[in-house]
Amino acid sequence: MAILAIDYGGTRIKFGLIGKGGTIIAVDHAAATPDSTIEQNLETIHHKVLASFGNLLPRHPLSGIGIALPSIIDTTTNKVISRYVKYTSAVEFDFSAWAEKTWGLPLTMENDARAALIGEWQYGAGKGYDDIVLLTLGTGVGSAVLSEGKLFKGKHLLAGSLTGHTSINVHGEPCNCGFYGCLEKEASTWSLPDMIKSHAHLAASSLSKIEKPEYIHVFEAAEKGDSLATALLEKSLKAWATAVVNLVHAYDPELIIIGGGIMRQQQHILPYIRKTVDRYAWLPPGTARIVAAQQMDYAGLLGMEYLSQNKTRP
Ligand SMILES: [Zn+2]
């Protein structure tokens, strides 16, 4: 039996047919459309699943649906409870009823970063560890914490999830959440265009000509000596590394897994973060292992497979 796993990201919605034990049978993706309702979104995914791998379903019958969303989720009721969400209509939506009506199957839900952490823990870089912090650097910044083999959630389900909206700069600009100096505001892909536009060296930089800048452009321009890109990269690396030191101090993990699209440049990011943690964390150097995600693209789908197949939740 397989699980239909759906992972809502900032720019893409990934979906896949995942077999027991994390076997990826088929995967595909659709563009995220955060301005449409979650119901319209799910309907689009439903059609795309049937078109992409409907022919595989007779051989791999589904036993459940797993949905990961970039929101705070009450997993006992499958309700989205965060006030600030990308898909605003998700707060009122009855996901379990949708899964029953559309697929006739039970539904499992989880926050996207927590799902990715479970995916890495069971099938990726986190195998064999029970105290893990996951950080994803992408459109936004996601995070999740596994403590003694259990997802760390806190009284109101927020714990470990909001590193992206943890302030690292008390003099920082207002974030899209209303707080100031959030990690996401200081260093993430959604914040990048504003950071470039407001920079004093804009006119002289090759980044001024790029319509939708991403971090890959910043890394490339910095390598060519572009002063805006170099300054921006130094600021971003310091922001991410500061966040990791803060996470080490908050959760004291054995392992920190860093994923997300920006980590395609991991050869530049990991050494900087390791050096900063070795210098500032209250641990002997190298004690907290810092590694790249192994399931860079599909950790969320794999995590939803594990959570759907295992009745006892971590
Ligand atoms: Zn914020």
| Shape type | globular
Radius of gyration: 20 Å
Low confidence ranges? none
What small-molecule ligands were found? Answer: zinc ion
- Mean pLDDT equals 94
Number of helices: 9
Taken as a percent bin, the fraction of beta residues is 15-25%
Tally of extended strands?
A: 12
Distance between the termini: 21 Å
Oligomer: single chain
Helix content: 25-40%
Order of helices and strands: EEEHEEEHEHEEEHHHHEHEH
Main sheet overview: 5 strands, mixed
Tell me the strand order in the biggest sheet.
3-2-1-4-7
> Given the helix and strand composition, which structural class is it?
alpha/beta
Provide structural commentary.
The protein contains nine helices and twelve strands. The model has no long low-confidence stretch (mean pLDDT 94). It is globular, with a radius of gyration of 20 Å. It has 314 residues and is of the alpha/beta class. A five-stranded mixed beta sheet has the order 3-2-1-4-7, with helices on both faces. It binds zinc ion. Residues 165, 175, 177, 179, 182, 184-185 line the site of zinc ion.
What's the helix and strand layout?
Blueprint: E1 2-8, E2 12-19, E3 23-31, H1 38-53, E4 62-69, E5 73-74, E6 79-80, H2 95-103, E7 107-111, H3 112-123, E8 132-137, E9 141-147, E10 150-151, H4 183-186, H5 192-197, H6 215-223, H7 227-251, E11 255-259, H8 266-280, E12 289-292, H9 299-309
Parallel strand pairs: 1-4, 4-7, 8-11, 11-12
Antiparallel strand pairs: 1-2, 2-3, 5-6, 8-9, 9-10
Helix pairs in contact: 3-9, 6-7, 7-8
The site of zinc ion has 7 residues, from α4.
